[in-house]
Amino acid sequence: MARTRASVGAKISAGKSNKARCSAAPPPSTPSTSGTSDKSSRGNSGGNPVCPRETPKWQKPITNFFVSTPSNGADVSDNENEEAERARLLAVSEKESGFWLQALPSYNLGMFFDNISFSICVCLRLGMKTNEPHRCLCGENVSQFGHHGLSCRRSADRLSRHACVNDIIRRALVTINVPACLEPNGIARDDGKRPDGMTLVPWKQGRSLVWDATCVDTLAPSHISVTSTHAGGVAEAA
Q: If you count Cβ atoms within 10 Å of the first and of the last residue's Cβ in the chain, which end, N or C, has fewer?
């Protein structure tokens, strides 16, 4: 039998149509096979796969920070710790809270920290352990975070912090040839209290510079209800 060009072309076209029909009708697959094929197709589609993981321990306090009200069955001490942690996170999130880390460590200006003082400051900022739990001389229990010593009524460091701040301001003014004195006599504020310091020479527009420093404890029990909801709320009200 002689082959013509028309018959060869018919066979080729018929073969193409059979292949097309075969590709259009794939064999049926089981549900498990189709599920794996769908997952593989989704995995190769370029999307972001979802991989749920357990919440890390360091992230749980941050997550609990956004919980405003504790449960009714929670312990009182646990509630106080949560409020203190919330107040600390609010305070360290402020832009001004890290300025002391950028200060020049000058011994003459009183801004030089020894190793122990610097480590305690970092622990207070990060909420880390500073001491062993014990009972204070005033009768209160001191936690491992050392917050009680900053506001204890029998702590002499409360007055020393206030005097240190005023002395730093006075010495800073002296370095720029501006003499100043602390607690000047004959000058009172509107509430009848004396300011903490005043320059002895005019500062601006023929008037002397007068300042008043206030040291507040963010984590004091009497302030925790305000500082746990608003950063710097006690300093603004002082």
A: N
Q: What is the pLDDT of residues 37-79, one digit of tens each?
A: 444 444 445 556 666 677 777 777 666 655 544 444 444 455 5
In Å, what is the CA distance from 114 to each residue of 17, 54, 111, 117, 118? 87, 40, 10, 5, 6
Q: Is 60 exceeded by the pLDDT of residue 86? A: yes
Helix (H/G/I), strand (E/B), else coil: 180: strand
Token pair of 112 as six digits: 């030089």
Amino acid identity, position 123: C
Q: What are phi and psi of 152, to 5 degrees?
A: -65, 135
Distances (CA, A) of 230 to 89, 90, 224: 11, 7, 10
CA 188-190-230 angle, to 5 degrees, is 115
This prediction has a pTM of 0.50
